[in-house]
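Entry 14. Ran structure prediction on the chain below.
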Amino acid sequence: MNNPSLQNLLKFSEFIAQFRMVERTLYLERLKRDENDAEHCCVLALTAGYIIASEKLDLDVGKVMLYALAHDLVETYAGDTDAYSTDQNAHATKEVREHEALLRIEKEFPEFPELIGALNKFEAKEDKEARFVYALDKIQPTIAVYLDGGYSWKKQGITLEQVITKKRDVIANADSLVFDYFNQLTALLKKEEIELFPQVQ
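Output, structure tokens:
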């Protein structure tokens, strides 16, 4: 067994510390601040694990957990791109920025090939586990805002129609079970639309 490298560990820990500093455009009123990427990934992983167990899904839990925990690591260098932003340049460059970030992570941490492999497979939506996490990543923030009384939607002026339009097709094309959750969630949001969303005058 080789002597462990403290310097490598410190370098990776600093990378994770930077990741934790990436704020998402999802304000949580109960925390009085924006959610960060590390929190989001942790919540996504636990939610994925819960669904796999409760629905008895034929998915590799280890793969799912790694995808969920790592899927936004590229944002450490690429930054978070707000799905509802009107900044067309941010949307147009998102894929390139995130791919360049992935290449940078691969170069900086060659000793962690499992992570690099997971990031590449997730980006390519290579297997059913990646597609499941990708789809779930689209509804987990919606659940978070719903549980927070719709505060972030009202703060950003986001309508129910925007939420549905932005998410429906990508979820439907990725995972049927998550799409079923999405449809149930949409029905709930429609029922409580007045309380959750800004009202157009």
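The domain at 35-196 is CATH 1.10.3210.10 (Hypothetical protein af1432). Will compare against last week's run tomorrow.
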